[in-house]
Amino acid sequence: MNASRNIAEPARAPVGAWAAPARVRLGWLNSSKGLGILLLMPALVLVVLFFLMPVVLTGVFAFTNMSTATGITGGAYQISPGALRVLTDRHGMGDLAERLGQPTYVVDDRGLAALEEMGIDPGIIAGLRRQYSGETYSSRREFERDIRNLPVRPDTRTVKRISEVFSRSLGNARFRSSTALIAAADAIDPDLTEEEKEALTATTYTGWTWTNDNFRRLATSRDTTRVFFNTLFFVAMTLTLFNVGYAMLLAITTHYIPERPAGIFRIIWFLPRISPVVIYVLLWKWLAWDTGFISAVLSNFGVRPRNWMLDTAANAWFFVILINGFVGASMGMVIFASAIKAIPESLFHAASVDGAYRWQQIRHIILPQLKWPILFVTCYQTLSLLTSIDQTLLATDGGPGGATEIWSLWVYHTALNNYAGNLQYGLGAAMALVLVVIGIVLSLIYLRLFNYNALVAKPRIEL
Amino acid sequence: MRILLDKFSKSFGDVRVIEDMTLEIKDGEMLALLGPSGCGKSTTLFAISGIHKVTGGRILFGDRDMTGVPSQERNVGVVFQSYALYPHMTVADNIAFPLRIRKLPEAEVKRQMEEMANLVHIEALLNRRPAELSGGQQQRVALARALVRRPNVLLLDEPLANLDAKLRLEMRSEIRRIQLETGITAILVTHDQVEAMSMCDRIAIMNAGQIIQIATPQEMYRNPRTAFVAGFLGSPPIAFIDAVANNGMLTVEDADIRLPVPPNAETPPDGTPVIVGIRPENLGRDGDAPVRGRVSFVETQGRENLYDLTLANGRVLRSIQRVSDDVSLNDEVEWRVRSDQLFLFSQNGERL
Amino acid sequence: MIGHLRTWPIVLALSILSAPLVLMYAYLFIDTVTNSPPRSFIPNEFTLEHWSFLWETRPGRPSIWRVTLNSLLFATSTSALVIVVSSMAGYVLSRLNVPGRAYFLAGVMVLHAFPAITLIVAIFLVLQVVGLYNTLIGVILVKAAIDMPLGIWLMKGFYDTVPWEIEMAGIQDGASRFTVWRKLVLPQVKPGIFALGLFAFLLGWGEFILPQVLAPSGNAQVLSVYLAGLIADDNNFDMNLFKSVGLFYMMPVLILFFFFQNRLMNIYGGGSKG
Predict the structure, then answer these.
(1) Is the CB of residue B347 less than 8 Å from the CB of residue B234?
(2) Which candidate from B70, B121, B149 shows the least CB-CB separation from A21?
(3) What is the pLDDT of residues B266-283, one digit of tens each?
(4) Do residues C76 and C199 share a domain?
(5) Digit-coded pLDDT (tens) for B70-110
(6) Given A212, B5, B257, C272, which residue has the most CB atoms within 10 angstroms?
(7) Same domain, A376 and A280
(8) Could you tell me which CATH class the domain B3-224 is placed in?
(9) C174–B51: do the CB atoms touch at under 8 Å?
(10) d(Cα C146, Cα C158) in Å, to the nearest integer?
(11) Domain B239-345 grouped into CATH 1.20.1050.40
(12) Which ranges carry the ABC transmembrane type-1 domain (chain A) (predicted)?
């Protein structure tokens, strides 16, 4: 409507109206650098918090003996029977341990003051001070006999209350700091040597401490070798059979059939990837469990129903590899299929004219084109298989009897979830550190393989 | 507004693209930056607009030094080859964008936007999206958007390159009309000499990061400073042959041609090798210096015919003549050159 | 088609290979609304009893709706966070002249390949110390951080396709670089943002191990952990119930995949985790 009005009006030369323009009000962020840093900030914060810091902390935790028992924030000093045993066995300070362990009664001013506050007969207090001040007893009976011998004789209940006040036993006492611990020990045995003090603080500490035991254990444990070879077997088999091999089979076969069925097959093989992992593994369990599909079908042929997924190590591996492989195959399938699609039609036609059979087409035209995609998938999937955990955890949980325990699952069982209940964070971190290091190395190699410099085009606006 | 590039240089990394270039664009004029691709003309445009920082020298708008001023404050209107319309906005919003950025009151935005749409004749398209427009229409929108905020200078970067031949002719005159109506200072970057000559007041011809010559189109055509300039202007292009100065004449030995030295050049000393430039319109039936050769190519353009004349030494001259039936392919002919219209260049292309 | 050989043997072979998967997924539907006699897989009655979990909360377990809401919160928040962070950082990597841009880009590639799950022990301990253990916020942050490198990578690719001239025009029109990004460039990559958001949502919806470790119980439980808990409970084995909960859980995935299959397949193919 406006337009028609404007057309009717002849366009005048607006030279007169060519006045000074309104000034631009530049926003507060106009430099590439300033805006860039601002926009990168959230990503950087997330990277620091959830990548860099955890990498460093994994390294740090790996050198501690953190566990459920020690806690993670720090601990106290407790003269437990266990600690005293360590003192005896490992430090050869049996005497000290005995002294600390046995009940001790010391008649000191502190106790006497406490008695006054409790409102005990002043005669009793005066008697105690006069006759026994400074005395030490190692037996309650002895001490209480002496109390009863006081000139003002307290009744039996009061005797008990008095003796309790003078009890200076350290057994099962808990101290906030090492100074408090040493002060208390000094009260019992004023002649503690520096060496003894050190041993005492070390053995009674309940928090975590620095250690390289984790790595020693990893290096010497037989489990390490077993889990290592399990992992190697798992990665190698899944990668070659499914993530590359089967994916290639799917990509090539669907290339040779009409688009409609090909699309249907691609979607079917995509299902494992898009399904939430819990459901996906559940479907396998339905297939394999003793009340499941395989058992039911085979029972018609007289085969005893059983849990096919967990009855033998071989079966467990069979399913673990299948379950992981079916998920992995779809990624390779999509990548390979698009690489094959990119091959010019004319190449195929030329080949058919030459009388090449399908196999020769695959051999001489398709496979050479898949070199880079295969390398890409191999790199990528090696990393993700090495660290994959969900499917195996939900399917066999490492069973039967640890047969399918792979490294990442081992970390999980050690540090995050086990039947014993004592989660060994430090050891788990040491195990995870192995994966972290492998992960960093492999992803750097991955970066080298894919020349990223080509991706960094120079910005064309110099502002 | 007068624009002055004062000893302007630009490098990318170690590569010097432009060195010490000085160029003045007068207030209200339309100047063409003409040159082959890679000659630095787009770099110059980016420097004026502020998209690129200059490596050395100054850029003045009027008396104001704009060298360090950010792009946004320079108030430069740019029409890009691809038009760079904002695809997610309607035509009206595209044109209004620069005004809204300046926080003008909405009524004023609407008034100015419509005025500008009027000027470029796209009143009926205001509610469309760029994808629904033809190339020529997009071009008009881009012009309107560049002009709506009354820029100090309008930069046109190959504005016609994406249009088909017919639209190109139409937009050529449209852009010129709009420039004249608004009286804005404009710089047209192009590699097409026809565009430069037909649209602009003056042409600055560039090669390898340097301005070779600045002149009006007529002057530049008649009086090219170098062989490069002569070769760049004119269609069909000028032909060059090697000759040697000899006794006040120019001889092409192995083709048996002798041409007089044109009055616009000084007579070179005997034995000097020179390059002679002959425009196609100056070789034909009338003239003063005979040239013999074989007609090796005939192209009919309707009103005129274009001939290639291959000389005895294998070099080719071009001739454009009124259509006639007496010459056909492979005829041996003797035509004439108007020797007063010849250009004489030294071996390295400088005009003599 | 290519060559003139028959295709039916290939179709047949593929059908046989695909049979187990088809069977499993077919029975995922069938078993939720039918009962079959023992030792048989031919249903003999139609029933809705397996869906009773929708209105009856099972003892010792949170309500399914509470858990579904958690899953929804978890997946949408992660997705939103990934979108925001990636669309910001991706733009910088694609377009802005910041010092060390090449290193950021290399870093993103390394992080994209790096298996973040290996850091779970450290993250678990950190969340405990800062008090975000067993909270949705904690696990959302972690999941978003893990998905972010892929997001940045994809967004950079989307930004790369926006013509430079649009930005140049915006700057000439007087817009600051921030405004150019916000008003001119961001609208051009909307389809990309949508695809990324959808993808991140699905990743979050299906995620199991992170919530299992970082927020296993209480008010933060999500559907995957809930379902895994049901299945792991040896005393109440009811495959039909598991499948019904599973189908309920998978419904959004199937719907989204049905409508946006091509876009999603491309992203998955472009290199996701797993």
Answers:
(1) no
(2) B149
(3) 888 888 888 999 999 988
(4) yes
(5) 888 888 999 998 999 999 999 999 999 999 998 899 999 99
(6) B257
(7) yes
(8) alpha beta
(9) no
(10) 20
(11) no
(12) 233-446
